[in-house]
Amino acid sequence: MDAIVVGIDVSTDRLDVAVRPSGESFAVSRDASGLGDLINRRKPLTPQVIALEATGGYETVVAAGLAAAALPVVIVNPAQIRAFALALGQRAKTDPLDAGVIAHFIEATKPAVRPLRDADTQRLADLLARRGQIIDLIVAECQRQKRLTGKSLQKSMTRLLAALQTELSALETDIDDAVRATPAWRDKEDLLASVPGVGKIVARTLMAELPDLGTLDRRKICALAGLAPWTRQSGQWKGRRFIGGGRARVRSALFMAAMVGARHNPVLKAFRDKLVAAGKPKLVALVATARKLLTILNAILRDGQIGQEIMPVAASN
Q1: What is the pTM of this model?
Q2: What pLDDT, on a 0 to 100 scale, did the predictor assign at position 128?
Q3: Alpha-carbon distance 301 to 219, whole Å?
Q4: What's the pLDDT tens digit per position in 230-244?
Q5: What residue spans define the domains of the chain?
Q6: Beta strands in the chain (DSSP E)
């Protein structure tokens, strides 16, 4: 018997559902009643996977409700779904058609089902995301303050910057309280931050955005972070390899940590200097250093302690 897969297109007020291989399709409202109806209709069929597109947060409650009902849920990248639709020659785009494409994509690719972030982890991720937004606002306002010299404008920008700094301090207190209130998170943060180059914000970003850290092998964890290079080769031609995709916030945090680590972490500094001495461009060396750092952190969390290979790093902290 063919495995049953379900694709769901999430909109503001409706869930369009497509089932393969039966071809069944229907829609329910995006509220508690509709979600309950969806669970009651799908659970007896024991689907192998239920997939939703990431839609800026609209999918979160739906995915959490399905996971709470012990249904296997994955959240997929909208860009991959659109590319798959174009590969099938399907240019039309409606919610029911999108649900069918999602189901077809899942049937073809068979993605692994991973546990969703729990409520506490999701809250930490939201707090860190908001912190990043506030910092972006502060940077933008500081740039405007340099450019605009009018006295009244300067006063306005000074008031706004003070308010943003107050909000940033409050958010950082909330983040600190959330982490330090959970013993398991405290231990994780202490392990991650034991490596020079990895500060509190980097450690907390990894905890919130990459909960798989320490549970996967190094190739899979690098792929999740978007640090696994793509091979580009055809016949006798070999192109440069690139990285991309994955979890952008994780990758950005690791780049910052790698830049600091390449100066203050003996292991990472030696690794980067060796690559540069071998003729690698500095940006390529930085990407490789970020990947090396991620594999180190993955091993530390996997083993629950600083490993022998990393002992000099921890000792220098």
Answers
A1: 0.67
A2: 87
A3: 16
A4: 666 666 656 566 666
A5: 5-109, 119-181, 190-315
A6: 5-10, 14-20, 25-29, 49-53, 73-76, 233-234, 237-238
What per-residue confidence (pLDDT) applies to 231? Answer: 64
Torsion over CA: 47, 52, 58, 63 (sign): positive
For residues 81 and 93, the answer to whether their CB atoms sit within 8 Å is: no
Is the Cβ–Cβ distance between 207 and 121 less than 8 Å? yes
Strands 233-234 and 14-20: unpaired
Question: Where does residue 170 rank: exposed (0-12), middle (13-18), buried (19+ CB within 10 A)?
Answer: exposed
Task: Give the residue from 132, 109, 19, 8 showing the smallest Cα distance to 65.
Answer: 8
pLDDT in tens, 264-311: 888 899 999 999 999 988 988 998 999 999 999 999 988 887 654 554
55 exposure class (CB count in 10 Å sphere: 0-12, 13-18, 19+): middle
Q: Which residues contact 300 (CB under 8 A, 6 or more apart)?
A: 191, 192, 194, 195, 214, 306, 307, 310
> For the chain, what's the residue count?
317
Give 193-214 pLDDT, tens digit per residue.
888 889 889 999 998 888 888 8
As a whole number, mean pLDDT of residues 179-204 equals 86
Instruction: State whether CATH 3.30.420.40 applies to domain 5-109.
Output: yes
CA distances from 161 to 129, 145, 150, 155 (A): 19, 10, 16, 10
**Six token digits for residue 4:** 């049953």
Other C-beta atoms lying within 10 Å of the C-beta of residue 100: 23
